Every structure is written in C-alpha cells, then in structure tokens.
What does this fold into?
Amino acid sequence: MARILVLEDDHILAQTILSILQMEGHYVTLASTGPQVLEHTFASKYDLYLFDVNVPIIDGFNLLKELRSSGDMTTTFFITALNDFQSFSYGFAIGANDYIKKPFDLDEFIVRVRAALNRHQNLISYKDIIYDPVAKEFTQDGKLCFLAPLESFILLLLMQNIDKTIEKAAFYELMESASDTALRVHISSLKQKLNLNIINIRSVGYRLESL
It folds into this structure.
C-alpha cells in the first residue's frame, strides 16, 4: 500500500481519483489548495504526488518548485487539462516526473500510477542520494551524480549494505587492478564528491554509516 497525496479542486474528479486509488489498495489524502498540500507534506511522507496545475492560492507549478527547493524529491505527476508544449516542457523542467492529461483514460491512469510506484519501491536511497536501477543513475538532492563507473559500483555496494562492514575482497572483485592504494583513492573520491560518511575499518574494509 502506497501513500498518495492528490491535489485537485474539482470535488467530483477528486472523489473519482480517490475511489480509483483506494480500490488499488492505497492510502490517499486529498487537498484542494496548495497550502493544504504543504501542510500535509510537513506532517507526513508520501510515495507519490498527483497535482492539478490550476488550483487556488498556489498553483501546481509553483507548489512543485517550492517542494523541490526544500529537498522534497517525491515522484510527482501533473494531472491537467493544459496541453500546450510550453506548459508541458516547463513542468518537466521544474521537476515533474510525468503528465496525465484530462480527461484521462482510467486504465492508462492505473498503469502509470502502478509503474511509478513500482519504480519507487525499487529505488535504493541513502540520505539525499538515490540510485535508480532502471536508469542506472545516482542523484543527490535531485541532481545527477557524475561518477566514474567503478565509483558507481563501489557506492552501490555500500548503499546496499548500510552500517555493515564490507571486506576489501568484495571491492577488489569490482576492480581490474586491485590494491589498497587504488581502493583508498576511489573511496576518497566518493567522500569528497558526495560528502559521504564512509568509515575505514583498519585492515578489514569499509562501512557506510547511516548517521
């Protein structure tokens, strides 16, 4: 069951979306204005946002900009009747993950929501760093991380084993020319690029700590 926040000021449509998502087994919160959304996001964490654009007080675009600027990278769909390219491209530019155009097809809506939630469940995260196994990309605070291939392999191994000491041999299996010096260089590079708390367990290996 996912937690979904819906911003929609059309009461009938909001209730329709609520019924659809509840039948899918999700916990749904409805909001009709931007400030209500901000109150909900302050109090709870959600797996998916579904935002209309033309809503009172704070429109969907400005709402998403505010959430993204505060570090909230929750997957967000715009459900809107806007269909001009400028609005479409602007929504993606400020951080939207997808668009669903009104009036929407019920089956398409369900498929898109399921796909988004499945992808969310497969994400691997550590603080403000997220690894997307589909795109095979790391992002930090919503921005793409530019890492060398070996750095990516090392970071993924660390993120899959948070608070566990990984022996050097496991890292060496990822490296063509394995040595203590080379491993230290890659670990140091990751720490500097991403401000990571990687602990050196002397003569044993390395550990990525949760605190």
